């Protein structure tokens, strides 16, 4: 009965909450063309809509009223107005009979029927464009759409992803992932622990709540570096609505709350190792290895463009070292103008790289957007955290492939030495930028001159 009531909650949200489909509050995401745009980013073929079992129940009928009354068996209260709405679902705040406050994610009833049409329309449009512009190579978008959308529309899969990432990153005490209430969840209705906070790109919110913007940016970088380089299981939709921040009243620590776990990318071991080596080469400005590992990832002769796309830096900055200097306004302008000028080459590159790379590029762009909003563009500290993750990932892989105890010990010692060197360099950077460091440098300089 509880599950049947949840189905009705979904139907009631769609009929009484006209926020998305009524003429007064029409959501532009409901239009096919806009949904095609979203499909281009993530989407595909759809599973059967279990709400068809309720479509035969007339609104306002005796049976409808009976089913609606059953909601009271599950919820003490249920807010009709959604907390947030997107093209696939909307989220409502509710209170269970035992007093727990929950977030109820309900899939829109139109999604099932509309999305399959969107995919077909997208495929037709891309075929037409390719006939007109033979160099236009974006048919891979359809393949990605057909693979990813069924996963996003299965809320039970989303719940499993949430539990997996929470366990995987359990050592990060700043990360919070909502608990899933499985006994009250279905493929189209997901009940989660209710969590709230400010959006991760809201600098003003953080300043009002005495949250260190730089700490949030660093922790977000740590979080994604761990997912990408160490675990190969990556949350691929870190737009600001899915990443919240909140200061814990009891501990005073700032938490990052990760929401919407429908879309993850699983990286193969070989891809992850090549990606680790590539980023290590980019951070060290080792151009030979940048070329080698870019080409192993499908970039071919376009490896300079690939390096610029990954780092969002100019080729000059990549050669000099991406941790050597921050992004300047002139470099930003150069990057944007080059993006338009090199569109055919970018298209070719996206068609050649492994499909795993596509969602990573999207994820990188979203994370850079957050950094830009917070005015915390990637610093030397963030690159050092990436280096640590790459070193750990490569060392773990090498140990797993070695059958010699001596070799495994050697790998561990090399790993420890490399991590120690990074820690020492980070201490040097901290001293260099701190008052204490300036005082120490001045003292050493005075002692040096006094000696002579």
Task: Give a concise summary.
This protein has 452 residues and is of the alpha+beta class. The chain has helices at residues 2-15, 32-42, 52-55, 62-74, 111-132, 140-153, 155-168, 203-208, 213-231, 269-284, 287-296, 303-311, 315-320, 329-341, 343-352, 355-374, 380-401, 405-433, 435-451, and strands at residues 75-78, 84-85, 89-96, 101-107, 175-176, 189-193, 198-199, 233-235, 243-247, 254-258, 264-266. 60% of the residues lie in helices and 10% in strands.
Evaluate the radius of gyration: 25 Å
Report strand %. 5-15%
Counting helices, strands and paired strands, the structural category is alpha+beta
Give the strand tally: 11
For the residues shown, what is the average pLDDT?
A: 79
Can you tag this structure with a few keywords?
four-stranded mixed beta sheet, 19 helices
Blueprint (SSEs and pairs):
Elements: H1 2-15, H2 32-42, H3 52-55, H4 62-74, E1 75-78, E2 84-85, E3 89-96, E4 101-107, H5 111-132, H6 140-153, H7 155-168, E5 175-176, E6 189-193, E7 198-199, H8 203-208, H9 213-231, E8 233-235, E9 243-247, E10 254-258, E11 264-266, H10 269-284, H11 287-296, H12 303-311, H13 315-320, H14 329-341, H15 343-352, H16 355-374, H17 380-401, H18 405-433, H19 435-451
Parallel strand pairs: 5-10
Antiparallel strand pairs: 1-3, 2-3, 3-4, 4-6, 7-9, 8-11, 9-10
Helix pairs in contact: 1-4, 2-5, 2-6, 9-16, 9-17, 10-11, 10-17, 11-12, 17-18, 18-19
């Amino acid at each position: 009965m509880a599950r049947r009531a949840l189905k009705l909650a979904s139907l009631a949200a769609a009929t009484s909450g006209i926020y998305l489909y009524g003429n007064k509050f029409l959501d532009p995401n409901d239009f096919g063309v806009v949904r095609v745009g979203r499909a281009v980013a993530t989407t595909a073929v759809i599973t059967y809509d279990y709400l068809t079992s309720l479509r035969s129940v007339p609104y306002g009928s005796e049976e409808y009223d009976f089913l609606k009354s059953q909601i009271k068996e599950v919820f003490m209260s249920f807010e009709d107005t959604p907390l947030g709405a997107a093209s696939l679902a909307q989220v409502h705040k509710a209170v269970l009979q035992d007093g727990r406050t929950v977030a109820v994610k309900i899939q829109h009833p139109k999604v099932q029927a509309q999305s399959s049409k969107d995919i077909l329309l997208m495929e037709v449009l891309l075929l037409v464009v390719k006939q007109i512009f033979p160099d236009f190579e974006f048919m891979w978008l359809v393949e990605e759409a057909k693979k990813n959308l069924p996963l996003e529309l299965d809320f039970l899969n989303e719940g499993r992803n949430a539990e997996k990432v929470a366990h995987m990153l359990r050592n990060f005490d700043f990360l919070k992932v909502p608990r899933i209430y499985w006994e009250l969840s279905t493929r189209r209705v997901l009940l989660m622990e209710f969590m709230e906070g400010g959006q991760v790109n809201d600098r003003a919110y953080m300043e009002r709540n005495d949250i260190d913007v730089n700490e949030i940016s660093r922790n977000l970088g740590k979080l994604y570096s761990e997912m990408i380089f160490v675990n190969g299981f990556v949350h691929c939709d870190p737009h600001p609505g899915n990443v919240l921040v909140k200061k814990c009243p009891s501990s005073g620590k700032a938490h990052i709350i990760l929401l919407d776990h429908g879309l993850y990318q699983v990286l193969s071991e070989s891809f992850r190792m090549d990606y680790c080596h590539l980023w290590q080469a980019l951070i060290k400005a080792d151009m030979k290895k940048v070329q080698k590992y870019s080409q192993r990832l499908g970039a071919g002769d376009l490896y300079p463009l690939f390096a610029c796309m990954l780092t969002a830096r100019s080729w000059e900055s990549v050669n000099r070292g991406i941790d050597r200097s921050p992004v300047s306004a002139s470099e930003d302008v150069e990057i944007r103008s080059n993006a338009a000028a090199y569109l055919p080459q970018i298209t070719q590159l996206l068609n050649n790289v492994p499909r795993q790379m596509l969602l990573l590029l999207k994820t990188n762009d979203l994370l850079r957007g957050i950094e830009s909003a917070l005015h915390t563009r990637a610093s030397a500290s963030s690159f050092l955290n990436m280096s640590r993750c790459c070193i750990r990932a490569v060392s773990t892989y090498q140990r797993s492939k070695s059958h010699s105890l001596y070799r495994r010990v050697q790998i561990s010692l090399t790993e420890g030495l490399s991590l120690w060197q990074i820690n020492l360099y980070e201490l040097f950077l901290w001293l260099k930028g701190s008052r204490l460091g300036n005082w120490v440098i001045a003292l050493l300089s005075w002692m040096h001159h006094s000696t002579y």
